[in-house]
Each structure stands twice: as C-alpha cells, then as structure tokens.
Design goal:
By secondary structure, the chain is mainly alpha-helical. Helix content is 61%, strand content 0%. It is built from 5 helices and no strands. It comes from Haloarcula nitratireducens.
Length: 109
Amino acid sequence: MPDNDALYDVRERTKNPEHASVDDVVKLILERAQHPRTEHRDAHLDEMIATVVDRYGTDPIRTVVHRVLVDHHPFRTATHDLEMRNVDGVRIGTAAGQFLTELNAQHDD
C-alpha cells in the first residue's frame, strides 16, 4: 500500500502548527510579487510570480497553491477549470514549494 505522508510540510496536510499554512505561502507570494528581490539568488522566482499574479489575480493563485501543496495535484494540471495556462501552474507550484520551504526554515530558526 502506498505511503500517504505529506509531500509538502504545509499545515493543512500535516496538522502541525509549526508548519507554514497555505495562507502564509500565498501571502509571501503576493509580497514577493509586489516587491521582487533584485539581488537575491531567487530573484527570478519573484519576477516570474509577479507576472503570473498580474495576469490572473490572487484567487486563482491561491487555488493553485492549495491544489499543489495540499491536494497533491501535479503543477501542470492544478490549473484545471481556472482559465489559466498549464505552464503558469508550473510556475506557481515551483514558487509555492520554494517559498513554503523558506517559511518553514524560518520557523526552525
């Protein structure tokens, strides 16, 4: 039988209050979209997510983040029924995973 452990340490999956929530991840995505870091190694993620947020707004972003981090949808199909390009689901999922890791590392400090 397959192991159903969470692939992402997100509070909605793990029920661990020490883990960042989907809302935390979405908040950071929106912050980085508004204020991209220019001299950071992940500046490309900020610029990419700013473009996606401008294109679709916040609600579809939140839906994709939840589908990827909690519901275990593949990045490219997390956009189903959202009038969003699949490649943008990949972009959102990539950024969400990275930002979740960053948030959880801050909790560990």
